[in-house]
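hey can u run this one w/ flavin mononucleotide bound, need the structure tokens asap thx
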Amino acid sequence: MATSEGSNLPPFSPTTEFTFTESPNPGWKHGQSVETTPEGQAWMEGEKAGWTVLDTSKEEMRKIYSVLVSGIVPRPVAFVSSISEDGFENLAPFSWFNQACLNPPIITLACLSNSKSAKDTARNIKSTKGFTVNIISEPWIEQANFASIDAPYGISEWPITGLTKAPSVQVKAARVKESAFVLECELYQAVEIKNPQTDAVSSTLILGLVKYIHMRNDVIGPTGGTIDPGKLKAVGRLGGLNYSKVSEGYTLERPAWKDFGDKILESISASNP
Ligand SMILES: Cc1cc2nc3c(=O)[nH]c(=O)nc-3n(C[C@H](O)[C@H](O)[C@H](O)COP(=O)(O)O)c2cc1C
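ok here u go:
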């Protein structure tokens, strides 16, 4: 079993380039079952272990948390800079984060409330509206991880991380100078999430409208229209306290009916003569 425990871990090897390989099964044809490859057969053998099904209304939240954050992987991480009404600046990482939609460009992040209060990030975004989402790169993951410290309200994480403030175009909250990809956002909607059994608010789901995208030119790919993953060296969040690298990938064409439709119809009529 993969483990991050023990003192004999090999040293970190920084991502120097992003490698593209073939996809797992490049010869796959539409309709072909998983068991037709040795890897697919071995995968389906796993079913012999049986299933565990959790009823989330009956389980301990701690267990649901551990299972969900290790099963929904890898997650992108938003490193959020926000500011309170009285000018206190805040930095914290959030991996319940993603792009929600494109038009308009909206991102989501969720801040879990503790038993006493909402997190500073949620409180700040609700009151001052503007915030920045800074994508974390490998060379400064330790700094970003340290910003998750449970500092009391009013204590800024900026000086304790060693990261540098850079001005945003529109919002008051600074962006992180070390981040090569930054979203300058404005609160679109804050949704208070309630536990249906207790009716208690447990989290705030922030929907942020992306107003500006800051891209460091050296991470922009050769065509100018995409970010190069090998240059960005973004980190992924796994379960527990674990992170992952983004250093290898493969391409799969998006199927179009115009290319496959005739063959698909043919195979359907052959199997239903
Ligand atoms: C990589 C990483 C991801 C995290 N993701 C979340 C998250 O999605 N939601 C959340 O409520 N807390 C998350 N945390 C914990 C917060 O960063 C932590 O509670 C932080 O102190 C919140 O800061 P704030 O109160 O200043 O907003 C995460 C921590 C780390 C290290």
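Residues 105 and 210 are 6 Å apart (CA to CA). anyway lmk if its weird
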